[in-house]
Every structure is written in C-alpha cells, then in structure tokens.
Amino acid sequence: MIYYKKKIAFSGLNRELIDISKKIEGLKLPKGFLEFINYTLFELFANIKEHSRAKSAVIEININKKNCLVKIIDNGIGLRKSYLLKKIYPKDDFAAIEFALSGLSTKNLQERGFGIYSIRKLTNALKGEMIIKSGFTQAAIKESQINFKKTAQKIQGVDIIIRTPVKLLDFYKAVE
Predict the structure, then answer these.
(1) For each successive 10 residues of the chain (176 residues), what is the average pLDDT?
(2) What is the pTM of this model?
(3) Which of 11, 27, 131, 164 could make an SS bond with 126 (beta carbons 3.0 to 4.6 A apart)?
(4) CATH topology of domain 2-169
C-alpha cells in the first residue's frame, strides 16, 4: 500500500508531513486507523520541531493490508536534555522516557504533553508495540507494560518505532 523512507532536513519537515499525509489519505484504511496514523505523524513531527534541536530526521513508514510500521529517528538532543533545558530534572534517561510516556510537557509545567502519551494509548488500543530510545535507554511498550533496558551505545536524539496491526480503531474512545 505505501512504503516511504527518507532523510529529511529540519527545514523540510512541514512540507514533508503534508506530502506524506496526502499519500496516506489516499489509502483505504479501516475506520479510525487513518486518524491514528495522521495524529501519530503530526505529533512526532511536532516534537522534533519543538523540542529536539535536530538538524534532520529519518522517517520510515510501511503500511500494508495487515501491518503498519512508523519509525522516526532524529539527531537532536534527546529527551533528558530537552527536559533539563526546561528546568525539569529527570535523574537519568529512564526517568526522561517515563516523563514523556506519562505526559509531562516541556512547554509549560502546568500543561500535559499529550503527544507521546496519546500515541502510547492508541498503540495499546491497537494491540501494537512502541519502542522509544534516547540516551542510553530503550523502553518497549506492549500491552500496557513498559520494559526498560540500558543500551550499549548512546542514542543521539530520539528513536521511536511503532508497530501495529492495521485494523478498526475507535480513535476518540482510545485517547480518553
């Protein structure tokens, strides 16, 4: 149905998101699944633009009749440093990923960051898997379980991989 992989300069993120969205809009996807893909891409691109200080990102999207893969890797500052710059002090990369998954925003301490938090809920509703890597930490989220592990090599920026089946989704109920 669609396979897309490209390295995108920071300055081209908005244009590329529009192009990708147009390609995805033309797919025949189950009810709610199109909203999931568009929301996920919008939020992940917004995070790169707002928080990462990345120069570029590698985007990979593979959607067929049964499965979906979204992989976004930026070369920015990573989650922990993004929080530290906003005077939020995660003790390590594990805590920084937990902050993001729980919805702690780096925009304003009074706000929630719904991006990664909501993507996690939607991925779970689809019975999928989400992997986040930042710094020396990887978190694999599946069936509401988070499994952390230390990585041998430091990840620059943030890597996010989402794998789900392509199926019907009550989008608004899943993000409640």
Answers:
(1) 96 96 93 95 94 96 97 97 92 95 72 80 97 98 94 95 97 88
(2) 0.94
(3) 164
(4) Heat Shock Protein 90 (3.30.565)
